[in-house]
Amino acid sequence: MLRLNVSDVDLDLYQDEAVNLTIQFSDLEGINSPVGSFSQTFRVPGTQKNMDVFGPINTSDPGSVNLKTKKAAELFSGSVSILRGFVQVKAVYLQKQHYADIELVFFAGAVDLRAELAGKMLTDLNLTTYDHTLNITNVQSSWLGNLSSGAVRYGLIDKGFNWSFPDTPPWSSTDGLEQGELTPFIRAKAIFDAIMDEAGYTYDSDFFDTTGAGNFDRIYLPAYNGSQSPLTDDAELGQARAALDVDYTSSSLNVLGLTDDATNGVDEGDNWDNTDNDYTAPYTGLFTVDVTYSYSRHGGSPTNIYIYRNGSEEFQLDTTETIGYNRTQTLVMLLVSGDTVDLRGEADGATAVIYGNDTVGTGIRTDITVTPSAPMSGQTVRMARNMPEMSQIDFVVGLQRMFNLVFVPDKNRDNHLLVEPYVDYIDAGNEKAWNDLIDYDHDITLKPTTDLQKERYQWTYTRGLDFVSDNIQKALDRTYGAYRVLDAENDFATGDKKVETQFGQYMTSLIPGSSFPIHRSLKADGSVIINPLPMLAYWHGTSTNYGQWYLRNDSHATTGPSSLFPSFSNYSTDFASVTDKDLNYGMESPFFPVQVNPANTLYFEYWAQYVTELYSEEARIMTLHLKLDRVELADFEFSDKIWMRGARWRVLRMTYDANVEGLVKVECLKVLSDVAVCEDTPTGFNVRDNVVTFNNSDTDYGSEACCELYGYQWVRFEEGGVGYARCKPRPQTAQPT
């Protein structure tokens, strides 16, 4: 007997009412869609029990039933759970002013994830566990994997500085790189975990949990949204304004009693101390100190006003005239975190005075305004504030489209998912034999997959905003790193299909005049990109391949030289070769030295086998009816490989009446995992001959078709009258300017 449990209540049902369920993996033409299940609408009686579950419902106000609210639900056949998910009220039917039926639709699976994340941005995430102070200890700890257990690493991006050697270098032996010019990168998995946690989901994933070079834990997102230095709290970046509240007439040199309690006083970051009457720098950076001062001298006796830093005179204001009203002085000071600034004065003589009036900015007065610029170090870096502009659902879908992920709901645990790349999920499935369960009283339909194919597929990043990406896009009429599949010989395939991730491509090129590869977030005119795209890059560790560089410490002293440079790029290592990984969909010529372009791009690693099976001449869709009982349905997973009619099949869709123990209509795709992407696979590199080798053999040079399919160059030679050909890597591209 069918049971529908909604919000822990078994609803009253019409036992003869058909409840037609469709359980589907995904539509093949939506090849990046997550798993989902749904039912056709069905009716339940409008009994008081059912009314109480879906209330408020009353006869005087039919509109009071909430048609937008979902209710947690589970569908049982006897004691066997068929589906877990939620129901939604689609309509309420009245007869003679009384409720007769409630029409429901049942949903299950990951279709609810998008709704849970709607409207939420990365900046809304609780990332406080990754907040930290920007100092030399934490920067160096990040390179060792000791800052937030390796979740945060510091790297280098040109954020509008327009660095080049020798004209505008980022560092020299006497002028090291500022800590604030570095950029924090946060592990992509840390962001994904925070999104899932705040949405109320848990998950299992070998893909996300596997660690080591080339794995997902080495993929990071720059915590960068256009600011030239990592952002802290708004309050800490605020000004401090204080005024001398009463006239000062002492001949002793003392700290003047300026206070932010004065009218128009400001101290957003709590940096002004009204007891010590001084300002404390919350971090290391340039601070603009604006002083307005008014005074009167007594004859030849001194009236002096000074700006002090850490108890020592920094600057003496001009008080040479007998009387000075509202004179101004601006000083730009480099302050290290913890440095103090105050005003000190002396007024010797009966008529000598330094004027105060308890108001900032008005009347004859003495006041101070301290305005911080972008911090260089010492600030508390708030990771959420540094997130690029991106919605949480776009982050999740972006990963899905990069790595061809499936989100499979757990049948036994609410809001628990299995998240794996499609190829890994399918490979892990169980073998099952359903051949004896086929109902031959119904037609069995076999058809090719041509109706589901497109003539052109494209996998691509979002069009880049930096000048390197822009130049490539204009020259090649495509986004850097994109990959296309064109099936011009198929007379039946028509139309286009684009799989586009919401991330931008992490373009890496050399700082002009150097061997240091970094991302250059610059427009064509050299200006900074105000709202850069979110990007993903591999962390390589601290590379010794690039040369020596210099960095400022917490005392703002230049340290170095160091040959350990924090390295990020689209490649999984700092000097990539054939078997490494590439976050491009398709192979591109790099802008910095690598040994060989990796063959394992996103397309070939996560998408190619799926597309190959879809486009194979042997690909078939079979539709048939099976005699499956409730236990077999409950035990079914979409990763299962089903043996039927002399072949293995993957189920794409099941349709059946949950209220009747009987036939299930099944649509399935023939398993063709033994169909290779190409007959030859690049696996090695002969350094001396500069030749790519194939099939795990040092002497197998592959074929022209496979060489070019993966993106390499097939070059023909003639030596001693004998012609031969070899597969060559792509050369490095000239540096963009």
Uncertain parts = 27-32
Residue share in helices?
10-25%
Radius of gyration: 34 Å
DSSP summary: helix tally: 11
Strand content: 35-45%
Approximate shape: flat
What's the total count of β strands? 48
- Average residue-wise pLDDT: 88
Distance between the termini: 72 Å
How many domains would you count in the coordinates? 4
Sheet with most strands:
14 strands, mixed
Q: Structural class, judged by helices and strands?
A: mainly beta
Keywords:
single chain; 737 residues; mainly beta; Jelly Rolls; 4 domains; 14-stranded mixed β-sheet; seven-stranded mixed β-sheet; flat
Question: Mind sketching the topology for me?
Answer:
Elements (H helix, E strand, L loop, with lengths): L1 E5 L2 E2 L9 E5 L11 E4 L2 E4 L2 H7 L15 E8 L2 E16 L2 E12 L3 H5 L14 E2 L2 H9 L7 E7 L23 E6 H11 L3 E3 L1 H4 L9 E4 L17 E5 L9 E2 L2 E2 L6 E2 L4 E2 L4 E3 L3 E13 L6 E7 L2 E5 L6 E13 L4 E8 L5 E2 L12 E11 L2 E2 L10 H12 L1 E5 L6 E6 H6 L3 E3 L11 E4 L7 E7 L4 H10 L6 E4 L9 E9 L4 E2 L6 E4 L16 E7 L5 E4 L5 E5 L2 E5 L32 H14 L4 E8 L2 H6 L5 E4 L2 E11 L5 E8 L11 E5 L4 E4 L9 H7 L2 E7 L2 E7 L9
Parallel strand pairs: 10-36, 12-29, 30-42, 32-34
Antiparallel strand pairs: 1-2, 1-6, 3-4, 3-43, 4-8, 5-8, 6-7, 7-8, 9-27, 10-11, 11-13, 13-37, 14-16, 14-17, 14-26, 15-24, 18-19, 19-24, 20-23, 20-25, 20-26, 21-22, 21-24, 28-29, 31-41, 32-33, 35-36, 37-40, 38-39, 41-44, 42-43, 43-44, 45-46, 47-48
